[in-house]
Every structure is written in structure tokens, then in C-alpha cells.
């Protein structure tokens, strides 16, 4: 399972706004193109483990500062979908 986690975490740290929009659409999560771009820019290069609750929560708090609390909740839903096994 560690390989799976590494792949997902790597994807999060290299995601583009367009990819984030695609995943949001796939999981019926509401996010604007501008928000997706800002979030992707923030995530780029970040070493974070979204499988660890504390790290994911800290990341979501930072996303809330960038894109607002409602969008952060939506992104958290997306991350939870990514971590379901």
C-alpha cells in the first residue's frame, strides 16, 4: 500500500489546475477554474502525506486561506476520495 500512497501524494504535489478540475468533476465536487489554479499552484512541490489526518488538515487550512473555507471543504472531500482504499 505504501507505493499507492506515494503515487497519490506525488500526484497531489504535481497536480495542475486542469487536472484538479477533472478530478473534481469526476467526483461531483464543486470548484471554479480560478480556485483550482490557485490551489494547484499552492500544492506544487509540497511534500505532504494526505493519508495522514494531521498533515491533510493543515493543508486544508492553508487551502481555506487561498480559496475560502467552502472550497477547502470540497478539496478535502476530493482528498478523502483519493485516500479511500
From TrEMBL:
InterPro entries: DUF2624. It comes from the Bacteria. This is Uncharacterized protein DUF2624. It comes from Mesobacillus foraminis.
